[in-house]
Amino acid sequence: MAKEIEQQQQTDGLxxxxxxxxxxxxxxxxxxxxSFAALTVVGDGDGAVGMGxxxxxxxxxxxxx
Length: 65
Fold this sequence. Notes:
The protein is an alpha+beta fold.
């Protein structure tokens, strides 16, 4: 999976940088629900930049989103 992402970055000419990964806890009647929020920035190194936020129960899925 990681190798596929690296290959996509090389062919697209985009660089991806993960800024933060936060663990979020939601307290409900039955206990605590853990999830993760990831903030990622993507750019081409020539001024074009994009930002993305992903939330999921597992870190790799949050980063992929």
